[in-house]
Design a protein that fits this description.
Length: 256
């Protein structure tokens, strides 16, 4: 039930849907005062959520800063990579692996492995879809990694988790059964790290966090950053608000 509710809530918390809802209300309301208020609020929200500079300040405060690759002196036994970086619905996909905007999660983890900073990669992630065809991201990555020349013994698959909360206990089961004393590096997006750390700590998994896929950028005091609307603004705010709501929901249910 929690999984289903989380998907419904995602629709309700998207800022773009708020603006659209206000515009629809303005079209159909018969009172001019309400129409003006709805249009005013929609305009203010649009300006706020498309301002790159404002978003950049907020995301930089939220994203977790961790050690960097050059600070890893002794290789970790396992790099635990959280899913959410693929798009199996892009066409064509039968002859390639398609990544989404979170692809840096995977590529930074691969870079860690190639640099000898982690000895094995544990990929955790099934399907997060509520309806429609469900495919396990981790399982799809296994042949792709083999094509890149990574030996099968260095690839560990957890293919059932539908979300971050489920990833933690399923990963712990694998570690306890097969790698009880492994030194683990926990790899996920910097904006996703607060919730991920909480879930894995709750399960008693020892790990060192390693943030990747940062959204925050170096501040640029330019006209583009300060004034011009950013067409990706609503998209980025959606991720951040989802994380805030998800963190609170996990905390309330005792997942953190």
């Amino acid at each position: 039930m929690f999984f289903v509710l989380s998907k419904v809530l995602l629709f309700l918390i998207e800022p773009l849907n708020w603006v659209i809802g206000l515009l629809v209300f303005a079209v159909f309301t018969k009172k001019s005062k309400r129409r003006k208020r709805a249009l005013t609020v929609a305009t203010v929200l649009s300006i706020f959520f498309t301002n790159h500079f404002l978003f950049n300040q907020v995301i930089r405060l939220w994203e977790v800063k961790t050690i960097t690759m050059d600070q890893i002196q002794e290789p970790f036994d396992i790099g635990i990579l959280l899913g959410g970086y693929s798009n199996p619905y892009i066409i064509p996909g039968n002859d390639r692996h398609n990544f989404n905007e979170r692809g840096n999660r995977f590529f930074n983890a691969l870079e860690l492995y190639r640099a000898g900073k982690v000895r094995k990669l544990l990929l955790t992630g099934g399907s997060g879809r509520l309806i429609g065809k469900k495919t396990s991201e981790a399982l799809q990555m296994q042949p792709f990694l083999s094509k890149l020349g990574i030996p099968p013994e260095d690839i560990i698959i957890e293919a059932a988790a539908r979300n971050t909360y489920e990833s933690a206990p399923l990963t712990k089961k694998i570690l306890d059964e097969r790698f009880p004393n492994a030194r683990c590096l926990l790899i996920t997006s910097a904006w996703h790290m607060p919730r991920t750390k909480g879930c894995f700590r709750k399960e008693g998994i020892p790990f060192t966090p390693f943030s990747v896929d940062y959204i925050g950028e170096r501040n640029e005091f330019t006209f583009d950053s300060l004034i011009l609307p950013d067409h990706l603004g609503f998209y980025h705010w959606k991720f951040l608000i989802k994380e805030w709501v998800g963190y609170v929901a996990y905390w309330m249910r005792g997942y953190l």
